[in-house]
Write a structure and sequence with these properties.
By secondary structure, the chain is mainly α. The chain contains six helices and three strands, in the order H-H-E-H-H-E-E-H-H. It has a three-stranded antiparallel sheet.
């Protein structure tokens, strides 16, 4: 079955937009001494409910070894701390430091600014229509998986 040109283009366009946004955000957080991966990890930790490293890796959808490197970097920057979990000396809980909380506020503002720039010129109806389409495509992907 042959797809219309628009149907062939839409996934590439969404993928390209996502890559460009990630690149933009990465460049901005690098100015603050972070990487996109570290910023994502830091934002997740800041959401609260202290997680152990295994749970955090699962939520970020990364390998535990990758998470360990990210956490090592964040800890070296003084943004997070590892704390022992009561009744399990092997497990470590990851928590924010005061400096980490200040950086999270900055990173959150950077994300707000990026969203504002990316969505400039789009009205609420445009956004609702696009959101409906993306949600349907996401459901199709989940059902196919």
């Amino acid at each position: 079955m042959h797809l219309s040109p628009a149907r062939e283009e839409i996934l590439d366009a969404v993928s390209k937009m996502n890559r460009k946004m990630r690149t933009m955000f990465d460049a901005r957080v690098r100015e603050r001494g972070l990487t996109l991966s570290r910023a994502r990890t830091l934002l997740r930790i800041a959401e609260g409910q202290a997680l152990n490293q295994k749970e955090l890796a699962e939520e970020l959808e990364i390998e535990n070894a990758t998470l360990v490197r990210l956490i090592d970097g964040l800890e070296a920057q003084g943004l997070i701390e590892r704390r022992e979990v009561e009744n399990d000396r092997r497990a470590k809980q990851v928590v924010m430091t005061d400096e980490g909380e200040a950086v999270v506020k900055l990173v959150n503002q950077m994300a707000v600014d990026l969203r504002r720039e990316v969505l400039a010129g789009l009205n609420d109806n445009d956004i609702e229509n696009a959101l409906t389409i993306v949600r349907k495509m996401t459901r199709n992907i989940e059902e196919a998986a």
